[in-house]
Structures are given as structure tokens and as C-alpha cells.
């Protein structure tokens, strides 16, 4: 089963969904009481954009093993895609309790916290995601946003700067650094940062509006 699942994951990564489905059908038929096949079929369905059906497969896996971390994590991902954030949050908590401790899980816990208006939970989760994987630029960006939202501008500035060091094309990080500079009345620095954001993304409405605001204050 393990070799089959590795092959399936390779097929999913290559977007060879039909071949992956056939391999999973065979694996489930051969091992109907093994939650692994159902879990991977759920992940395949998410990749195919069918999160609603994916939930059914994850729940089948959990009916066979209610402490199956990958199934809880997968179910949380599917529910999140469906906008069922509270249920997704519960699944992610179950995954954590089942022993999963990686940046992807905490990133999704943070995303749920954002959707549910739980700023403290989101901040803690994004921070943990960055601690576990410092190369996760999106988790670091979300962590920086939460720091800024909660008023810790110095810490937020450090994190946005780290985002740019990792991804020099991250227009939103430049924009948010511009916002911090503007808040500190550093108009010229803010202008340069907003202009950089617009150069990277000419459709960046927030940066465009921020520049207009600076111009109006002249």
C-alpha cells in the first residue's frame, strides 16, 4: 500500500488525475479497511476541485480510524474550501491532537482563525507555522499582517522585510511596508515603497490609492 500511495501522490503532482483515481480504486478494493486509500482519494478530489465529494472520503477514513491525522487534516482542507470554517477548524485541531505538527497545518489553523475573527488564534498559528518552516513566505506574510493588525508595527516591519528578502517580487509586502512608513509620517519612504508595489503589480489598487493620498497631502 505504501508504494502505491507514493505512486499516487506522484500522479496527483503531475495532474494525472484519471490514472491516480484508477490506482486508488484498486487500492481501496484490495484494502477496504485501510483508511489510507480513502484519505488519498479525498486529497485527489480536492486537487480536482471537488471538495464536497472529498469530505465523504475523509469521513470514511475517519470512520475506520478516528485518530487518523492525515484524514483529519485533509477533511479540514476540504471543509475550508467549502467555506465551512468552524468545522474545518475542528478537523485541524483533531489533526494536531493526532500528532501532526507541521507548518501547513498551523497555516490552515491561522486561515481559519482569520475567517472566524479570532485574531489571537491566527497570530499564534501563523507564528508557529513560520517557526516550523522559515521558508514559508505566505505564512510569514500572514504573520506580519496579523502583527500589524494588532498594532505591533516594529515586529510586523521585520517580518514584511523578511518576506521581501525571500521574495523580492512580493508586491503586497512592499505595500504594507509603505503603510507602516506612512503611519510613521515617513512620506518619501512610503512613496518609494508604494511605487515599488505598483511597479511589481500595476493593478495594485491599494498602492495606487495610497500614492494619491500622499499626493493630496503635498
What does this structure look like?
InterPro entries: CellSynth/LPSAsmb/PSIAsmb, TPR-like_helical_dom_sf, TPR_rpt. With 218 residues, the chain is mainly α. It folds into three domains: 1-99, Serine Threonine Protein Phosphatase 5, Tetratricopeptide repeat (Alpha Horseshoe); 101-156, Serine Threonine Protein Phosphatase 5, Tetratricopeptide repeat; 168-218, no CATH class. It is 79% helix and 0% strand. The chain is built from 13 helices and no strands.
Secondary structure topology:
Elements: H1 2-13, H2 17-30, H3 35-47, H4 51-64, H5 69-81, H6 85-97, H7 103-115, H8 119-132, H9 137-149, H10 153-166, H11 171-183, H12 187-200, H13 205-216
In short:
This is Tetratricopeptide repeat protein. The protein has 218 residues and is mainly alpha-helical.
Q: Which key features would you list for this structure?
A:
single chain, 218 residues, mainly alpha, Serine Threonine Protein Phosphatase 5, Tetratricopeptide repeat, 3 domains, elongated, CellSynth/LPSAsmb/PSIAsmb
Amino acid at each position: 500500500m505504501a508504494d502505491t500511495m507514493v505512486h499516487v501522490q506522484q500522479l496527483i503532482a503531475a495532474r494525472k488525475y484519471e490514472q491516480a483515481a484508477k490506482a486508488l480504486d484498486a487500492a481501496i478494493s484490495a484494502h477496504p479497511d485501510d483508511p489510507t486509500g480513502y484519505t488519498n482519494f479525498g486529497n485527489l478530489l480536492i486537487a480536482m476541485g471537488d471538495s464536497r465529494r472529498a469530505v465523504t472520503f475523509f469521513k470514511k477514513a475517519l470512520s475506520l480510524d478516528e485518530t487518523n491525522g492525515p484524514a483529519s487534516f485533509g477533511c479540514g482542507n476540504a471543509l475550508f474550501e467549502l467555506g465551512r470554517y468552524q468545522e474545518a477548524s475542528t478537523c485541524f485541531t483533531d489533526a494536531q491532537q493526532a500528532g501532526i505538527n507541521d507548518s501547513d497545518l498551523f497555516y490552515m489553523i491561522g486561515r481559519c482563525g482569520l475567517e472566524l475573527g479570532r485574531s489571537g488564534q491566527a497570530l499564534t498559528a501563523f507564528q508557529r507555522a513560520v517557526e516550523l518552516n522559515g521558508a514559508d513566505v505566505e505564512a510569514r506574510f500572514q504573520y506580519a499582517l496579523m502583527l500589524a493588525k494588532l498594532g505591533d508595527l516594529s515586529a510586523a516591519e521585520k517580518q514584511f522585510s523578511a518576506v521581501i528578502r525571500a521574495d523580492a517580487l512580493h508586491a503586497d509586502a512592499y505595500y504594507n511596508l509603505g503603510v507602516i512608513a506612512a503611519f510613521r509620517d515617513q512620506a518619501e519612504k512610503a512613496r518609494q515603497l508604494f511605487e515599488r508595489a505598483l511597479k511589481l503589480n500595476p493593478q495594485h489598487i491599494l498602492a495606487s490609492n495610497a500614492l494619491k493620498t500622499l499626493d493630496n497631502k503635498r
